[in-house]
Amino acid sequence: MLREKLKNITIKDLLKDGKISVRASNCCLNANFDSLLDVIEFYENGHSFLTIRNAGKKTCLELENLCKQYISQIEYLESTNNTFEKIEKDLQKKIELENFIKTDLLNTSNNKLIESKDILSYLSNAKKEILKKKFENHISNYSIRTKNKLKSIGYKNFVSNYLFETNDNLLNIRGIGGGSLEEAIDLKNKMKDDLLSLINLSEEVTSKLNVVRGESEIILNDFVTKFLKENDHLPMFWILEKQLVENNNRNIGILIDTFPIFQNYQSKTLKEIAKKYNLTSERIRQIRNNVFHKTFKIKDETIKYKKNDDLISYIQLLKNKNEWTYVLELIPETHIVNRTSYDIECYLKKEQCHFSVEFVMQIIGYIFRDEFTLYGGFDINNRNKSWKSVFLIRKEFTDIFDFEKIIEEFDNILLNNETEYLLNIEDYIVNSRNWINFNFTKIDEVTSIVRDILLHQFGLYSEDINGLIKIPATKEKNPFDVVYEILQQKGNPMHLDEIFSEFKKILPEHKYTKPEQLRPYLQKHKSISYRNRNSVYTLKEWKHIRTGTIRDAIIEFLLKNESPQTVEDIANYVLQHFPRTNISSIRTSMCNDTLKRFSFYDNNLFGLASKKYSAEYKEIEAKKNKRRTFEQRLIDLEKFIVENKRFPFSVSNNKEEKSLHHWWLRIVTGKQQINANQQKEVERIKNQYIDYEKDENNYKWNLNYNKLKNFLLKNKRAPFPKGDEKFLYSWLQRTKDDFLNDRLSDEQRKKYIALTKLI
Hints:
Number of domains: 7
Distance between the termini: 89 Å
Radius of gyration: 45 Å
Strand order of the largest sheet: 9-11-10-12
Structural class: mainly alpha
Largest sheet: 4 strands, antiparallel
Helix content: 40-55%
């Protein structure tokens, strides 16, 4: 009976012969149909194919038409008394012919086993579509004349009438001759190869390849077809990379140049890209933003693209979600995904793809945006600066909890935390104000996600057996507060060395390594004063402790007396508080006071310039020591350094500056002999003002550098070579020349490079 013979036709046979689609085949297998007879009997019993899992209206209609076709054939055969054996024999003959075509297409046609016009009948519609695309792709590379003639013929006519004929037959095509003939022969040879490749493809493979039929070179690529057969899905990352790399469109190139799409690739600046494409930086920014938003920020699935849109090919590829579903199978069943969750690099290697992990995460976040929320991905507006890593968090959790604010909160916690402590992260999450929609059943999952973020973002992890997270002390105590606390706890004046020793006990990891580095904090603190210039410090609140300098003590004594005093009397008072000084130093101090606070009288008397004394005291001009002492010189030097933020230079119109320069040079070079205490003060000056400029040329260079930097920051452009900007323009050009000819110091080179980034 003919119907019983239908048992021998399996569902796989139907798929292989192109009688049903892949979807229809899967639906039949889901319904436990083994053969064509099972399908027909299901239909004849009045059942609807819509009841089969995953069978839509289109699939249902396809299966109904299949049943009607075979039922009609059976009825016809039975009515004409044809035997099934004859039909089966004819069918077997057809199968043998198909196999012969697959193994030796050329001989099949040459031996006239089939007619050339019948070749296409052995191809499914999917394969015909691919062959058509291959034809169009080939002729696009020929001359305009040849391309137009071949295009007018069409691929069907070319295959049917010329593909297996002699080359001379191509001359029958009107307009083909000379150079056009060579191109037509080239097309003929290529189409034969393409046809043979297509015939050897299974319908299942062909169906999947149609996803990328817009790129004919990809369709019949050996790697793609082999990968598809071995893995049952296309290498989508490989295909996407192929489309991006081989696309010569400018806008695609700008996208690739802007973001780290590929492994070990350094993104270029807008300025660098602008130079490459001969555009302005602003235009590059506009193109970049447009391409980025079209690619990764599309919310409206109905958005339309022009047929010639440079993005349409790979955007359509990204939008074909079904072909990317295998990616989800690679992702572990975790609530949060990062680059360590699964071996992305390993899988990219399998697909022979060179995308960066960050770009892959970006792709996954876009394609499966209904399942994941992307954090820390590519960002044209620099809004993701706070995210050090890229995360994909399942939407069921991002819909109920704001993980962005967690990052902000812990940024502030770690920035301002002075004391190390343990944090119960679960309690923190429970009481968090970042819940969008509080869900008690999701607390454990949200806590786990936050733990993962804290680990990869801040390096915070649980060391406690109870799972508590250690929050380190990241904010150092203010040195101002520390030095004050040291003196307050001591209760007595302290030397700088002693203060520094206690300072390092409190802040052992502080960057300061020398006592002199603390001096600015001691001198500027509003509650700290010095007893003298011997690095002894006290608190102003200690009224019983003498503060200030020797001159302060002299002034204090003279204020108490209504008449000028002898230097001996002044010394007797001062020595009570400053026993290490002497009469000579006291006299010198008054005579060389730059503020001119002292007046001088006959009989070696001294008073205050601010006080008016009896007429019996005759004021005279002070006799200054022609040669100033080491101490006075050091005072003048330090005063100069503090006021000018640099050491004195030799080339100066100021005689005093030149004198100080030469004196200091003699001291540091050892040409002038000094004692141990004086040497200690010299070292103090060196260490305390180590960052102050000592070289005049370098000082002037830095002045000009700062002027130009401020100009660039303010004006957002380079100076013009005229007017008030001419000097800065000329200096920039000279510096550029020095940079190119390696005449700058390492520090100057770094500063120049920093300048160029502002231009």
